[in-house]
């Protein structure tokens, strides 16, 4: 009897060793990493000072908590159980609406109830923006402000009751009013997408993504290209949709769902992924150097993978005016401080500001501090 | 490093158990001491030398307690001064100086600042064990240990080093001496006990803790009466499952090493009086206080008046033992008052009322006491005011289905031994399992495995709420 009990104990003891054995024997690369943005723990140097202050010990506790090879699998098991048994999600800034439609809580709050922009400073900025757009136009530089609707606007009927109310002084309304008042060239794409949602065969915005889909973004890309061709005398290559393949969502088209880190899929809809042909015949081979200041909605446009064919390789995407990304994905992104940004914009072929309607907290993210220098350069050219 | 951390479960525990079972009999004590020192040094590297040094000195002092030594009393006093002095210095000097300087400021003296003294973790527990050794040996109830290794093992054994149970020397004296040839083999039940404790902590205590934190985050000014009551009730169960879970883990670890530590909790929220509560809550502290403070003070052998003074004193000290702050002192005094009141007349009244009303009375008194225990005095008074204004019955926080399920399970577990036969059965379950033998153990094994795996999953998931992307 004692032997049998000891065997059971040894099995139990063996199970305690599993995480350590997995850590030592399974290559971390072979594990599907957890998705989403979260703090990762780097190893702290071993020193007497770090040991005495217990920073080194805390670091190891964090490493075991956050970096174990088993973690992604274990977390997904936990998330799956919570989702299936209790309908619970684990994600930051998540708001679950009717029929399981997922929203960004902060954007939903911006839509209904919160204000972040100050009318006075926004008025000053948009006034300067108008001046900038005029100078750029004079310089034969393209300029456009594009405001795609946030998902919270498109799917507003699915929002929880307390988030549904209209907010006349929302950041979005303030910005539109100021752009209008100062005559800045802008596209508010709300009506366009609201109408298109009713007729589109494929999701333009999905239930489990916070952004528009690749297919949704593709309409803005085509519209933008058409508009730019009008501005640049039809010198840019034109894009035509060759075919549309369909599949379950890929990449960012289910970004909320991906970040939930489940084993199973929630959204089984068919998503559309267009393939394009690029026509640069007949002298249509001008690729303008475009600087885009945008929030994460611009990733949807980049995800069409056509920007390298229509924009110059030096074109830049100033992500929240904080990090610089390139069309050419082989070039590493870097902080914006490493660029003389006013000169960059002044020497470009165009500036696009693209920001979704309810993600305006912090807008224009620092451009307001550079705009005077930019205007100065353009005035002196 | 706490028992419910991934580091402890995935690294320390398997390595310790592996080393312990693979080492020859003669080395097992050394393995425990080595891992215990590592365990303590991990959390308090600068105090490891303090712990070792004070333990060596104390062992040397206690060597002179032999009846033949005419100076034995002086050595006892030396040992007590050393232990109580160090405890007072590290734990109470900040409190004493802060209040002294505050009083000085009120009297018009200029403000004095001082450097705060760091508190060595576990000092309250290992000091009590050292005192227990000194008094048990001095009284002649137990022989002194000849081996310093045995003494070191008794003081620093990691399962009970930093949070108890407080093991009186008399509880483990024979186990320490007979350790190498210990016929007592309950490794598997030790593992089960550890898993049960881990489950109490991870599933129940942590869930109650989230509810408490959510309500506290509202701020006392913002919360309403319903919130305040829920926070108090949730804290009541959080602290129970947290502490009882930790004690179960310590007892389980002890069993895996071949030691049987005393029990620390016995369904305390089923108590029908505060007197009974203290026989069921933190039992090892109660026993320590009884044996080494209450009885030496005279206990209840003198006049009633003297008994009340003794009780009051014991509970004041018990309160201060929990923490150097006024709120702990008041918490102790509050419990002491109810004990005295029950001795005076309350118990006679309580005996006349139905059992569930007595339990309700005890729970109410204990609930209120947790308010003082969990926050400083000013906040506690504001919080009580909020509880008693009954302004709203609408909770300000959402409670998810999962949380609600766990809360209900926790409450059911707390009151499951609602009658004596069930309580007796629950308490004798480990022995019953042992009697059933391996078939009983095998039957429970899948459940234990599931609990361990789920605890691991919960711990790994704790606080993991990624965002889609970083927003600047």
SSE pattern of chain A, N- to C-terminal: HHHHEEHHEHHEHHEHEEHHEEEHEH
Measured distance between first and last alpha carbons of chain A: 94 Å
Q: How many domains of chain B, as an integer?
A: 2
Number of helices of chain A: 15
Shape of chain A: globular
Report the sheet-strand fraction of chain A. Answer: 5-15%
- Total of domains of chain A: 1
Largest interface, chains and sizes: A-B, 61 and 48 residues
State the share of residues found in helices of chain A, binned by percent: 40-55%
What oligomeric state best describes the polypeptide chains here?
Answer: heterodimer
Strand element count of chain B: 0
Q: Sketch the topology of chain B as an H/E string, one letter per element.
A: HHHHHHHHHHHHHHHHHHHH
Strands of the widest sheet of chain A, in order across it, are 4-3-11-7-8-9-10
The general outline of chain B is globular
Reported for the largest beta sheet of chain B, the result is:
none
What's the average pLDDT of chain B?
Answer: 88
Please give a handful of descriptors for the protein shown.
heterodimer, A: 381 residues, alpha/beta, two-stranded antiparallel ribbon, 43% helix, B: 472 residues, mainly alpha, 20 helices, globular
Give the topology:
The complex is a heterodimer of chains A (381) and B (472).
Chain A: H1 2-25, H2 48-52, H3 55-66, H4 71-86, E1 94-96, E2 102-104, H5 105-112, H6 119-138, E3 142-147, H7 151-154, H8 171-182, E4 186-188, H9 190-199, H10 214-231, E5 238-247, H11 255-259, E6 271-279, E7 290-294, H12 298-302, H13 307-310, E8 316-319, E9 323-326, E10 334-335, H14 341-346, E11 350-354, H15 367-380
Parallel strand pairs in A: 3-4, 3-11, 7-8, 7-11
Antiparallel strand pairs in A: 1-2, 5-6, 8-9, 9-10
Helix pairs in contact in A: 6-8, 6-15
Chain B: H1 6-22, H2 25-43, H3 48-62, H4 72-106, H5 123-138, H6 148-156, H7 158-161, H8 169-177, H9 187-218, H10 225-257, H11 274-280, H12 283-294, H13 304-322, H14 326-351, H15 355-374, H16 377-388, H17 401-415, H18 420-427, H19 429-436, H20 438-461
Helix pairs in contact in B: 1-2, 2-6, 3-4, 3-6, 4-5, 9-10, 9-17, 9-20, 10-15, 10-16, 12-13, 13-14, 14-15, 15-16, 19-20
